[in-house]
Specification:
Oligomer: single chain
Structural class: mainly beta
Radius of gyration: 22 Å
Number of strands: 14
Order of helices and strands: EEEEEEEEEEEEEE
Length: 174
């Protein structure tokens, strides 16, 4: 006679809330959440689940960040959730505007809140921000360049869907 012993690892639920403005998917599969959710899938203890937010950009929607038990405050479209207990995560989406920055020499422009990080790209770097977001752009020279001028906008509300900010840097060395 033979006996078989089975050991079962506990599984924990991951609850994701999205909205009609975007979709959240997971790897490993199991979560495809849009239209408000919430969506729930249980994963074995110790599983690392990567959630990916996909805003409906063709409708002017931007991702505004994660909240809940993992990745709270992050603006990264991907969120890694370690399933060591039940977890709940919300993906935020909102109507947004696109900000484009062009740098005409060697330099870098970043934004607060995060989203823009443009390094010496005359073709332009683009970031999307929710309507009404107050944005501070910071320009800095790189490799001996010094910052001379930044033209930008501070509040993205009553502007066209795409606004261009120019950073002018010069190669003035001390």
């Amino acid at each position: 006679s033979q006996s078989i012993t089975a050991q079962f690892a506990p599984a924990f639920p991951l609850t994701v809330t999205g909205s009609a403005d975007g979709i959240v998917t997971s790897i490993p599969s199991g979560i495809i959440c849009g239209e408000g959710g919430p969506c729930t899938k249980s994963y074995p203890s110790g599983t690392s689940v990567t959630l990916t937010a996909a805003p409906k950009t063709n409708f002017g929607i931007v991702f505004t960040g994660w909240s809940g038990d993992a990745c709270a405050g992050s603006l990264d479209l991907n969120c890694a959730v370690d399933m060591t207990s039940p977890k709940s995560v919300t993906a935020g989406f909102a109507t947004g505007r696109t900000l484009t920055v062009r740098i005409n020499r060697i330099g870098r422009v970043t934004s607060d809140p995060p989203g823009m990080d443009c390094v010496s790209n005359f073709a332009g770097c683009t970031a999307a921000f929710a309507d009404g977001t107050v944005i501070t752009l910071t320009a800095a020279g790189v490799d001996g360049s010094t910052f001379r001028q930044l033209s930008a906008v501070s509040i993205l509300t009553d502007i066209p869907a795409s606004f261009i900010a120019f950073a002018r840097l010069s190669n003035l060395r001390k």
